[in-house]
Amino acid sequence: MNSRRVVVTGTGIVSPIGSTTKDFWKSVVDCTSGIGPYTSVNPENIRFKNGAEVKDFDPTIHIEKGALDLMDRFAQFAVVAAQQAIKQAGITFTSESAQRTAVICGSSIGGVHAQEQSYYDLYKENKTRVHPLSIPKTMPNSASSNVSMQFGITGPVYTISTACASSNHAIGNAFWLIRSGVCDQALAGGSETPFTFTFLKAWEAIRVVAPDTCRPFSKTRQGMILGEGGAMLFLESLEHAQERGAEILGEIVGFGMTSDASHITKPDQQGAERAMRMALEDGLVVPEQVGYINAHGTGTLVNDSMEVAAIRNVFGKHAEALAISSTKSLHGHALGATSSFEAVATIMALKEGILPPTANFEEKDEACDLDVVPNQSRKKDIQYALSNAFAFGGLNAVLAFKKWEE
Amino acid sequence: MSEVIFNKIATLLSSKKGINKELISIEQSFEDLGLDSLDAVELISDLEDEFNVNLPNIELQQIKTIRQAVEGIEKSMQP
Predict the structure, then answer these.
(1) What is the CATH number of domain A254-402?
(2) I need a surface site. Which of A68, A347, A359, A389 has the fewest CB within 10 A?
């Protein structure tokens, strides 16, 4: 296998805590949470009233009308995030380079707004037809397809749907495509928009959403809080980035993915451990080099204690020396997009030497007794970091990042 | 009231999970009956519908036995 190094030269994000990387990162550093009462759905008949929505998003500023007509909200987020990442990377495509570029997007649910509208029209309004673009707007690959169409990218383009690990799987696949020489560059990340009445009712039914806020690793945690948005990374081989004099933001060094093959919603500690070990081995990283883990940290009773136990097993005594935090306490759990947010946070943490905090932390839980960077970001230079994602369905994906150094 | 709730639980577990009604007792845990956390969520949700009550998630997650289910529903019915 070719062993090219893979670097990040652009990031783009539309999130509940900022719709540029600069604004997102400022919210992370300041520990400003985007969780509050959701307004895009009537909360009257839903038990939980809080979420993390992207406020004041006007896609018409960023996307021309003809293209916009083809996009559900989740595809709009992906396209706008991709625009930012490409702009920061300073990349232009030729017909040849476009063929050597990949687009891999993560999404758990695709265009649920278009789908919901169709159901409403048929079942509630008794209409006899639905919008002719319902299919192209609903299909989960709509985001990756629209990104490729916006920029004329003609290499491998696909969507990965692995629930809450989708974006890590997408970024990890792109990393491997570039490292192995299949592609020279890629846009990878994810987007999601879970705020529809039907979908919120489905989350209500499975009983894992907190009534107030997301308090990862805190003894008082009561569950997750849903979020929305999208983030994209521009990845390229180190050689390619250096040839064109691009500013390098960070490096991806390892990727691990495993399946629990046990329970559809309850995470299995061994699956999480194996994914972390695989990411470390793939990146030739020894556990003692890792200074920070952006945890999956959903804020549910089961995940957080399982994840801490898994980290203890993988890192041994070094678990006491490293920091972990869950930025879901800030941007919510954006399902298929969430690990794209967390990738941006991890890259920035390495670049800026600041550990993201776990917001809303109240009380230490003996089952989660690691350094979770409670309620305040912290200056600390680190060389390596992991970003964990453990999805419903027992699918685990872990990325290993490195601070950029020659 | 607790007997009514228990009987409803037995009926639901029999019809939905194929468990012999005669083998269900108040002292059993969900684990004893081969039920996992998702089965428990389904059972409590059905009971909430039946008795027109709502249990907070945190209380639901702590219910591990038939007795706790009966008591949890009963408590939530109190004014």
Answers:
(1) 3.40.47.10
(2) A68
- How high does pLDDT run on average in chain A? 97
Would you call A263 a catalytic residue per the annotation?
no
CB contact under 8 Å between A222 and B57, yes or no, is yes
Q: How far is B77 from chain A (nearest CA, A)?
A: 17
Q: Do residues A298 and A287 touch, judged by C-beta distance below 8 A?
A: no
Indicate yes or no: CB of B45 within 8 angstroms of CB of A205. Answer: yes
Q: Does B61 reach chain A within 8 Å, measured CB to CB? A: yes
Question: Smallest Cα–Cα separation from A78: which of A92, A88, A68?
Answer: A68
Domain boundaries, chain B: 2-77
Q: What residue spans define the domains of chain A?
A: 6-243, 254-402
Q: Which of A210, A177, A184, A219 is nearest to A50 (CA)?
A: A210
Task: Give tens-digit pLDDT for A164-186.
Answer: 999 999 999 999 999 999 999 99
pTM above 0.90, yes or no: yes
What tens digit of pLDDT does each residue of A5-23 get?
999 999 999 999 999 999 9
Fold designation for A6-243:
Peroxisomal Thiolase; Chain A, domain 1 (3.40.47)
Q: Which residues contact A243 (CB under 8 A, 6 or more apart)?
A: none
Q: Of B36, B39, B46, B49, which is the active-site residue? A: B36
ipTM of predicted assembly, 2 dp: 0.87
Rounded CA gap, A333 and A356, in Å? 16
State the smallest CA–CA distance between residue A225 and chain B in angstroms. 13
Beta pairing class for A229-237 and A250-259: unpaired
Q: Which one of B30, B49, B57 makes the best mutation probe of the A interface by having the most chain A beta carbons within 10 Å? A: B57
- Identify all chain B residues contacting A210, using CB atoms and an 8 Å cutoff: 57
What are the tens digits of pLDDT across the range A371-385? 999 999 999 999 999
At the top level of CATH, which class does the domain B2-77 belong to? mainly alpha
